[in-house]
Design brief:
Layout (H helix, E strand, L loop, with lengths): L1 E2 L11 H12 L10 E2 L4 H13 L10 E4 L8 E12 L6 E13 L1 E5 L4 E5 L2 E12 L1 E4 L2 E16 L2 H11 L4 H4 L3 E17 L4 E16 L9 E21 L2 E16 L9 E12 L9 E11 L2 E11 L1
Antiparallel strand pairs: 1-17, 2-6, 3-4, 4-5, 5-8, 6-7, 8-10, 9-10, 10-11, 11-12, 12-13, 13-14, 14-15, 15-16, 16-17
């Protein structure tokens, strides 16, 4: 997916490290102090921005399950994001709802370093892993309709590819780079969601509709460097729906179904406009194989192709999902 983001979100990077790196590239034969600075760097704003990026993948959402932005045309930071999520209710008799999401993202900003005369671009690559779990309870309010409050807990870790190089430079130059030695960012989040879930299953068709509001507050914790402590308020309002019906064909002694899907997410709080758009819509179509007749763990397997679009952004994805 490609976009021209209206707002650049830079990743956390130590100005001291960039100064040393630029100096070594320019004068590899000697060691002396240089007066350089990172142009436009604001570590507090940067760290908040990293947490905002993490906020896009905290809960299961097909619009943000796979995102990729290229900086080839615009010069904006490149970003790729992939997540895996699931949610289910234990049973009608014991309506405990459980969900979980695990995500990985890579953010590739570029810093500009200046010594007052010359400027040099220094690329940085940051990797983020995050996970969220949710516990909820289904309260029936009508036939096939439940109200589901959910409590969410999140954890995220951000670290730069340059951290190993930073330690090497510290050993070679003897400089104090304590910020880089702890130049990672750990964050925890707590919040909740409120969902209306409609499920109507009939032999002729199956309908699922979910309306969900989520609010999770992220805060840096632990031995994260003081220079990059940050916070972010991740909020979203989403509508997800799916229609499944038999194609008239059979496979594995069960109906072979076609699947249609629609999803729309409005990003709120700090997420709104963070990547240059306020909303994303996804429309998808695919097929579903029913293997429930056989004693295997997976009862259904779905393959869907999705087209996604929003403010100045569009793209596509292919998703594989299983029911147990």
């Amino acid at each position: 997916m490609k976009t021209s983001c209206s707002e650049r979100i830079s990743a956390v990077l130590a100005p001291l490290f960039v100064t040393i790196l630029v100096w070594l590239c320019a004068f590899p034969g000697c060691v002396q102090a240089q007066s350089s600075s990172v142009v436009g760097a604001n570590l507090q704003r940067i760290s908040n921005g990293v947490l905002m990026l993490m906020g896009y993948s905290l809960v299961p959402d097909v619009t943000t399950g796979s995102l990729s932005f290229s900086n080839a045309e615009s010069g904006n930071p490149g970003l790729s994001m992939t997540s895996l999520g699931a949610g289910f209710t234990v049973s009608r008799d014991f309506p405990l709802y459980l969900e979980g999401t695990a995500a990985y993202s890579r953010f590739d900003p570029t810093f500009v370093v200046s010594d007052g005369t010359n400027e040099r671009s220094i690329p940085a690559k940051w990797n983020t892993i995050s996970a969220t779990v949710g516990l909820g309870w289904d309260f029936p309010i009508a036939q096939d309709l439940v109200l589901r409050p959910i409590v969410n807990f999140s954890y995220g870790h951000v670290e730069s590819d340059l951290s190993i190089a930073a330690q090497y430079l510290g050993n070679q130059t003897g400089r104090d780079i304590s910020f880089l030695d702890n130049g990672h960012l750990d964050a925890v989040g707590v919040g909740g969601s409120l969902m209306l879930d409609y499920e109507r299953y009939r032999p002729e068709n199956e309908i699922d509709v979910e309306l969900r509001y989520t609010n999770i507050y992220l805060q840096s914790v632990g031995n994260t460097s003081d220079a990059v402590k940050g916070s972010s308020d991740a909020q979203s309002l989403s509508l997800w729906s799916r229609w499944r019906a038999p194609t008239g064909l059979s496979a594995l002694d069960r109906p072979f179904r076609y699947v249609l899907e629609f999803s729309h997410t409005q990003f709120l709080g700090d997420l709104r406009g963070a990547l240059g758009f306020d909303w994303l819509t996804s429309v998808g179509a695919g097929v579903e194989l029913d293997s429930s007749k056989y004693p295997i763990l997976v009862t259904r397997t779905r393959l869907l192709a999705r087209y996604k679009f929003g403010d100045n952004v569009q793209g596509w994805s292919v998703g594989l999902a299983c029911s147990f």
